[in-house]
Amino acid sequence: VPWGFDHPSFMFRLKEFGDLFPCALGGYNPWWNAGIEHFVGVTSGAHGFGLLVWPLLKLWEPHVFYGAALVFWFVFGFPWIGAAAVRSAGVDRVGALFAGLLLCGVSRASFLWMWHFGTAGAMASAMMALPVVALGYRLAVLRRGGAGTALALGVAAWLACLWTPGTFVCAGLALGWLWSFRAWSWRSNRWLCAAGALALALLAPWFWTTWFPCRNVLEYVGTALDHPGGAVMALNGARRLGNAFQEWQPVLGFFGLLGLAAAPRELRRWMLPPLLALGAIVGWSREWKPLSQLDRLAIPMAVAAVFPAAALCGRLFGGGEGGAAGRGRRWAWAAAQGIVLATVLFGFRVVYLHYANRGSEPLRTLPPEIREFADWIRAAVPEEGRLGFAGRTVHFFGGGNIAYLPVLAGREMMADDYYSFPQSTIEYNYPPAFYRGTLEGCLFFSRAYGITHWVATTPNAKDFFAASPAAFEWVKSLRMPDRDFDVYRVVGGAPASRFWEGAGRVVARENQIEVFPADAAATRMVIRYNWRDGLFCRTPGAEIEPFAVDANLRFIAVKPCGHARVDIGYRPHAAPVKPNFDGRFHH
Fold first, then answer.
1. Which helix (DSSP H) or strand (DSSP E) does residue 484 occupy?
2. For the chain, first and last CA: distance in Å?
3. Burial environment of residue 548 by CB neighbours within 10 A (0 to 12, 13 to 18, 19 or more)
4. Listed residue (412, 402, 435, 423) closest to 582, CA to CA
5. Half-sphere exposure of 171 toward its Cβ, with a 13 Å CA cutoff?
6. Positive or negative, the Cα torsion across 199, 204, 206, 212?
7. DSSP state of 400
8. For residue range 101-125, what is the model confidence (pLDDT) as tens digits?
9. Whether the Cβ atoms of residue 5 and residue 395 lie closer than 8 Å to each other
10. Can you spell out the DSSP letters for 103-114?
11. Measuring CA to CA, which residue among 524, 518, 535 is closest to residue 559?
12. What is the pLDDT of residues 132-161, one digit of tens each?
């Protein structure tokens, strides 16, 4: 099971997607911090990969099949899709085969982000750049295909744009379409517009979510910081672009970029504008928007370059040209074939080393200590209790963040940096500052949320709990591959119950909380889940409203009005997600 760095976050996003799609793209999630609003799966591109494995998400939890699905799609699925798309764009079988081989490892950076860090959703969208450029070429330039090609192109563009920066690939291709105006026809443009309309229609819910609930993410990545003068910016961008090229499979650099000079004019006009536009973004976007991470577009840029590279490989290995010339040209042709073939084969060796975990960016897998910890949580933390992480968690737990741990353990949890949030958006410390400084504050916070156990992750947290044995009883030392932690039980805390007021049973899932009051005639009961503006009562006659626990915390008050079951739902609204009570990014 992949576990290092952001793989747990990505699996958690897949779980959210599997539980909610197609009814919703995010919303109210009870697994963390007593109910939080999660929409990051939309902007991170996780949903692109989620659509590819959606039937599996309905059968199993993500960690059961995630590792196998990752290997299947990046070793078999995407390369064969790319080969088929290139073949449909008029490239011969040999060229299409080269396209598939090159797509297995377009860039070492793709292994850094997909294999090592775990941003597999963004990389899945990046792989769809090749079908987009190839199928677009088939329709717009070759004027072949009809409804089937338009449908395939629309779906490919949809998947490519589910990682928000992927929209730049389609925007760059629009420039190539404009430069290819000599090849226009009413029929081809009609099908091209139909493909674009289909992609936009499919993307509409994602665009709406990005613009409204996820607008704080857009504002963060769009932050403009001070940048150097023009000469320094130009030099920095050129250096960044050169470094990106060094990560590419060399065949793509020579045949995909330089080889465009020898490509047919129609292919050159189609591919040069998007490659130049993406190159400009890769090189100089950080100078203007340093938090945007748009330099990762070097990977879909390499994927798009597979198309012209495959076309030239098809010509080189097609036979004919070398044999019809003199002996000198035949030798040169054979030498070129040998160099290209050797480069592809050596590139395959690099691909093998990465998947064998002997590359420069290895994959960290789920360590046995995490499984043991999850088993202990299930046994020690009551079913209606919560586990808190005091301090910060970063990647201390087996090399990955802890976002997915509640799914493995079956218990709700509370922490600050469980989800790989940017450091400037949260405190990277827990409990929140309002309750962290004093024993009374920490005890109140623990009792309010029903936290029965704390994991002390930093020296300050360990010292704080150890100094108050009457309030926090040491339970065990937790040993992880990187460091050790201490676990404490809250002494005399609130009973393990989801109710702040009243009694009964609560079943909480994504975007749905079911409350079964012990006394349906009760005037009011309060459950230990955060009130958020999108919550509403689905049970006719019953009511819900916010309940102020103190100056910061607001729980959900339920008025059953005689109902034995009250169903609470969540509906995203046309406004950005509000920050946490401390003014930080809501998490």
1. strand 484-490
2. 26
3. exposed
4. 435
5. 11
6. positive
7. B
8. 999 999 999 999 999 999 999 999 9
9. yes
10. HTTSBHHHHIII
11. 524
12. 999 999 999 999 999 999 999 999 999 999
